[in-house]
Specification:
single chain, 463 residues, alpha+beta, FAD/NAD(P)-binding domain, Elongation Factor Tu (Ef-tu), domain 3, six-stranded mixed sheet, six-stranded antiparallel sheet, 12 helices, globular
Length: 463
Amino acid sequence: MSGQPIHIVGGGLAGCEAAWQAAESGASVVLHEMRPLVATAAHQTELLAELVCSNSFRADDWAHNAVGLLHEEMRRLGSLIMACADRAQTPAGGALAVDRDAFATAVTGAITNHPRITLAREEVAYPPADWANVIIATGPLTSPALAEAILARTGEDALAFFDAIAPIVNVDSIDMGVAWKQSRYDKAGPGGDGADYINCPLDRAGYDAFIDALLAGPKTEFKAWEEAPYFEACLPIEVMAERGRETPRHGPMKPVGLTNPHNPTVKPYAVVQLRQDNALGTLWNMVGFQTKLKHGAQTEIFRMIPGLEHAVFARLGGIHRNTFLNSPRLLDGALRLKIDPRLRFAGQVTGVEGYVESAAIGLLAGRMATAEAFGCPFTPPPFTTALGALLNHVTGGGLAGVGQSFQPMNINYGLLPPLEEPPSAGGAKRGGRGERGRMRKYALSLRALRDIDAWRGAEVLAA
């Protein structure tokens, strides 16, 4: 190994995961984080791996959900982010949600206490020429100086999309004489008991009045960003309503799988759900209620929701700009910038979306950088795994022209190659298409875990 450390720019989920993977493999790491010296539009603390949007890592079912499969693959590879998420989990039905402060504190402690990691609180406008092995993991809130320097060198136009933040409510201000606790279909997930959400019911008249208010409410507008699209999985609630009055009712406000114990014979027309946001259970976030409503309008409109008439908001919603690279055009298969191969990129800036996906690319980048530092070859995980499929998406998968329409994406089974043989229909006839779909996902997941274990074993033998 050369005497130079691996320099990682950005202390978010991807940067921390990359630093951990490299340090655990024996490399020396310098992790550069500009906060608190330089603030961003969304962060509120100086903690590493601060979660600025949702506190959910989404579904934790490895057998039938692609993000749950990614969770499991990362756990098997010693992921710091997953280990800290597991320790900081809060009840969330079938999802893995975390106490955001406990999670960020745990990651920060692990990084700062690692003997091979040095934390440097400073802004990096562009990596100096004598940094030979660099990972840029600055995420969607890359500092303007660094973003402009990268764009100037690549000759690419900035790609951007809006990302919005949901409000958080003090639980004591929720009227539980109107609201009730229940997970959809009473599903109990990690650390949960089947009553992991607070549900606020709306009848048809209340729903219509709420939608009218959403559509009419004053919004935060940013003239310079008017051409930027929204990421589809994180649409502001009012943007959903603009797409059709019933759209929210088929999204985050769907009333399915729930029975109101205060009025069990009447099915709500729509339901607003809140998910526990901290371990104490004192803060709850409004699920799917990302918003660009102005703050004054938020308090007025969201208090129209039954049960939230006297809501006290610990944090109101907001909106910020996210940026990402045209990765299939700019990066090689090892996540290196083609015009400056000493620079490797990781996290959301590469064009993945979601906390877990961001950390997953950080995990791979950290291992790639370590292999390079030790002068060893690096074989990426097979495309049959969630990790390999995500990497394949970011680097283009060898598909000509993919960079022309490259957009951020969550992990999904559609990114994995199909099974060589479809799963046996067996007893699926009774369940129909839905049961066959579950069998297919289970077979894809089993193949992925088999292949990630084989890849992990081969990697250890090659080290």
